[in-house]
Design goal:
The structure is a single chain. This protein folds into two domains: 144 residues, NAD(P)-binding Rossmann-like Domain (Rossmann fold, 3-Layer(aba) Sandwich), CATH 3.40.50.720; 96 residues, no CATH class. 35% of the residues lie in helices and 15% in strands. It has a six-stranded parallel sheet, with helices on both faces. A two-stranded antiparallel ribbon has the order 7-8. Helix 2 links the parallel strand 1 and strand 2. Helix 1 packs across helix 2, helix 4 packs parallel to helix 5 and helix 6 packs across helix 8.
Length: 249
Amino acid sequence: MMQGLTASHFATDFYSTQPGDIAFVHAAAGGLGLLLTQIIKLRGGKVIGRVSSMDKVAVAKAAGADHVIVATDGKFVEKARQLSGGEGVHVVFDGSGPSTFQGSLDVLRRSGTFCWYGPVLCGPGPLDIMSLPKSIKLGYAVFFDHIHTPELLRAHSARLFDWYQVAVHTQRLPTNHAMGTRAGARGHAAAPGSHARGLAIAKADGREPIRNAQSMDGVNALPDQNLAEGPNGDELENRALILFPQIPW
């Protein structure tokens, strides 16, 4: 849920993806990258994804990425510019840390938007704002700004469920498996430095999980489940207080 709302924030509020826009998504086979790719595609955009190894290419493409670049050293700019017709992309979503910062700047077209996120890998260091090229817009996106009132939480969560149903019916979701609480601990334990790809989404109240966007290597998944109607407003608020204890309301 948290990553779904984060991806929603990035592709709607922070940058309002329009049909025909070209987005560059770092870590495109990760949980957030997969969700972000699907939302951009549902809004009519095109996605150039970056992954760190060849075995993740198929995962990113299954989520809808139009092109996938394998790069771990920041050398993705030339290929991405070629794929965007030589002009660069409209928006780049980068949570990969300082090593990709300059490349993300270089891959943008004039007046493009740079969405920087992820506090874990630290920032790019001191930045001279007058050194930013091509009239680009640079910002640090935080998902709490997407749901800072109960009304926004309800509205944006409901939209996530709607998008999910559209993605299912248009076959834009990767092959999925629900991951229950029995496998959740193993899934989270496997995350750092593992072969894990995608996202496990479990309900905060301990009931059956919503869905796993991609199964994890070495984790026994429960049978796939259909996502019925989304939770009502009261349920969303109760779960939000558990999932997001820092919410100001």
